[in-house]
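Q&A log
Question type: sequence-to-structure
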Amino acid sequence: MKNQKKIFLVIVNLLFSISLFANKMSFDEAIERLKNNDPKMVRLSIYSNYFIAEYVYQIVKALKVNKTLINLDLSWNHIGDEVAGELAKALKENKTLEKLRLSGSFIGDVAAIEIAKALKENKTLTSLDLGLNHIGDDGAKEFAEALKVNKTLTELDFFENDIGTEGAQAIADALKINKSLTDLNLGYNKIKDQGAQAIVDALKINTTLIQLNLYDYKIQDISILDKIDFYLTRNKKIKKALDIVDEFEFNCKEDFSCVNND
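Response status: OK
Response body:
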């Protein structure tokens, strides 16, 4: 790639901006604003720019020092092993990023494993989109290990990857332990009845997952999907009840309406 400056479209939603239109800037400017912790740059998208992988790498490196960005979309870029490795390092150090989209970014098991390992240390990310990639059982197994210790991730998207029975079973084992994940997308992978049944068994224990997409033409026993719906409905009722309790306790603290004066 030539060293000349390349201008591309960076979509930045500014925290205090009235306009909803995209802002155009150079890559150099975007990186500088990240490094300088521009308080107005809280969302950044470099969606679909395959030809600028070198600059994507620089954006990822800037995450290590950035303290303002909360939402980053790198979808439809060529995230190779090198960029993924740098991203993993950034996720271990970054303390503000909450949402990360990496869909359609040619991420396979090697890159997925590095990102999953970072989640064992990251304490701020709540949403991770890895849909439309090439993650198989090895990558899923590493994410399962991460889910056993991660306490902040609530949304995880593996839509249309290559996860099979072994990966599904590993994730199921993690769901028996994890208490933070509420939304999991495993639709259109390679999960068959045995893997789906493992998830059913996990949901007998897990009471926090309320959204699960497991739609896949490879699952032959439709009753498995019915059982999943049953447990998800139960979990939603549990969440609703807990929300009512939390609201009641909050109101008590605010106006002391439940203080016993006897």
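Response note: Residues 7-252 form a domain with the Leucine-rich repeat, LRR (right-handed beta-alpha superhelix) fold (CATH 3.80.10.10).
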